[in-house]
Amino acid sequence: MTSTERPFLNRSLAEFGTTIFAEMSALAVRTGAINLGQGFPDTDGPEEIREAAVRALRDGRGNQYPPGPGVPELRTAIAAHQERRYGLAFDPDTEVLVTAGATEAIAAALLALLEPGDEVVALEPYYDSYAACIAMAGGRRVPVTLRPDGDAFRLDLDELRAAVTDRTRLLLVNTPHNPTGTVLTRAELAAVAELAVERDLLVVTDEVYEHLVFDGAEHLPLASFPGMRERTVTIGSAGKTFSFTGWKVGWVTAAPGLVTAVRSAKQYLTYVASGPFQYAVAEALALPESYFAAFRADMLAKRDLLAAGLAEAGFGVFRPTGTYFVTTDVRPLGESDGVAFCRALPERAGVVAIPNAVFYDHREEGAPFVRFAFCKRTGVLEEAVRRLKALAG
Ligand SMILES: *Cc1c(COP(=O)(O)O)cnc(C)c1O
């Protein structure tokens, strides 16, 4: 085989050709459908935070390479946020690392912490970058499937325990969980923590939806559980909380040795990113509680609007207590294959959604489930619901 006959994409990435988001977004454009596929808001975050970014840019703050770990203002603001909300104290100089969004934090953590062949136990369905990053790091993913139970998806703790072997290096956790909207409870997190301590595992926990919890659910960081502070890499991001997903400001908080390891990988990925935006996000994290409460209330109203509309349109609806996604079951509509359903939906109803099956290794487990994003303007959601109701008739 000549070098141009050999496949260009290497073996570790071959199974991850193009993401479903590219296909579905192209479909949305071609058909003029409302795109409730990808999870980004259709309105920008707070005006004063946009202005803070403009000010930083004009004042020449962050226009050149910022410091590798992130600008001190932002690292201090991240530490203050963790302390204020969760009583978790992190040293801004040694225990906080700013990254190019949570996406880079996930990649850097896995590249830094895994040896080839190490097993990673992760909750399935996965956020779409997990499987690819585990593969790039040479790790082996071991899924533990969240299963429908009433109107939510739940973690089976016995299955989680059984998934851990002598080759397991880390648990990769995501709560609030995308795409199911599940928020792990205190008891579930305590069990995860106990398991991690007992089997001496590292934990990487993706908490980018920490501010989006509803119905009295509470976000509890895994790092706050006994024995977890020294073994947990916590990942956060400004994108979802402040509705600036294009700024790509994320972060890691962890013990010094873990931060140093993640930083070693991070420095050769992007080195640094998002200069002026780092200053703006430092201001965003210091916004009063009223901002976070209003953001949550706005998203809750949107959740209720879309969830009720989907139920009226005939979908089975799982009630998300976190994130800005609602997962549905298409079987009550007489369908069984979510992928085929989503491919046809733009033509049938003028709406784009994402089939959850693509987030599973056990595709059959996710086959009937379809995810809709509700982080869109009320009028857009109302129009989407109006269109989807045509499916019932
Ligand atoms: C959106 C998202 C990310 C990526 O966050 P960025 O800060 O935009 O890189 C990571 N994890 C989950 C679960 C997400 O939904």
Automatic annotation (TrEMBL):
Domain Aminotransferase class I/classII large: 33-388
Catalytic activity: N-succinyl-(2S,6S)-2,6-diaminopimelate + 2-oxoglutarate = (S)-2-succinylamino-6-oxoheptanedioate + L-glutamate
Keyword rRNA-binding attributed: no
Annotated SUPFAM superfamilies: PLP-dependent transferases
Function, as annotated: Involved in the lysine biosynthetic pathways. It catalyzes the transfer of an amino group from L-glutamate to N-succinyl-2-l-amino-6-oxoheptanedioate (N-succinyl-2-l-amino-6-ketopimelate) in a PLP-dependent reaction, yielding as products N-succinyl-l-2,6-diaminoheptanedioate (N-succinyl-diaminopimelate) and 2-oxoglutarate.
Family (UniProt): Belongs to the class-III pyridoxal-phosphate-dependent aminotransferase family.
Protein name: Probable N-succinyldiaminopimelate aminotransferase DapC
Taxonomic path: Bacteria, Bacillati, Actinomycetota, Actinomycetes, Kitasatosporales
Gene that encodes it: dapC
